[in-house]
Design brief:
The chain is α+β, with helices and mostly antiparallel strands. It is built from five helices and seven strands; from the N terminus they run H-H-E-E-E-E-H-E-E-H-H-E. The longest helix is centred in the C-terminal third of the chain and has 15 residues, at about 105-120.
């Protein structure tokens, strides 16, 4: 099976998402792959749930986690969000930037509720003990984005594959 290449057409410009499309894609419920740099230069990649703080992608993690230790040493961070089961349906967004560690209890709570809403169901005050438990001994990491790369193969109008 051959993968269509577009015959010299600049597919990159054809499949790039608009800012609104990127925002809509990121607002959907999905995991992301978060990458940081280990002490030996290798990449540490982990699947993460994410939420939003101040309109920015953020995650919660244990203060002593590998990703937190990596970011304290080197704040460079890349996050990948993807969807699609066949080439003609592939969509994704890569965000590259710098991590900002946030320890403000109000911001941590804001993120906790955001993550709970996205992945567990609508937050209500009855859920407070669960969110408090989830956030125990946690910090949040906000991604200050320097570069966005996106793709949506559905824009190519290819026939369904597979």
């Amino acid at each position: 099976m051959s993968i269509p290449t577009g015959g010299g057409v600049n597919q990159r410009s054809q499949i790039k998402m608009t800012e609104d499309e990127v925002a809509s894609f990121l607002a959907e419920r999905r995991p992301m792959t978060m990458c940081t740099m280990n002490h030996d230069g290798t990449i540490h990649a982990v699947a993460m749930w994410y939420g939003f703080v101040d309109g920015t992608i953020a995650i919660e993690t244990k203060a002593k986690s590998q990703k937190a230790r990596n970011l304290a040493r080197n704040p460079t961070m890349t996050c990948l969000f993807e969807d699609g089961d066949s080439y003609d349906q592939l969509r994704g967004v890569e965000l590259v930037g710098t991590a900002e560690i946030v320890e403000d209890p109000d911001k941590i709570w804001e993120l906790g509720v955001s993550v709970f809403d996205r992945y567990q169901g609508e937050y209500t005050e009855e859920m407070r003990p669960l969110v408090e438990l989830m956030l125990n001994n946690r910090i949040i990491v906000k991604l200050n984005v320097d570069r966005t790369v996106s793709w949506d193969h559905r824009k190519l109008g290819l026939p369904p594959m597979g």
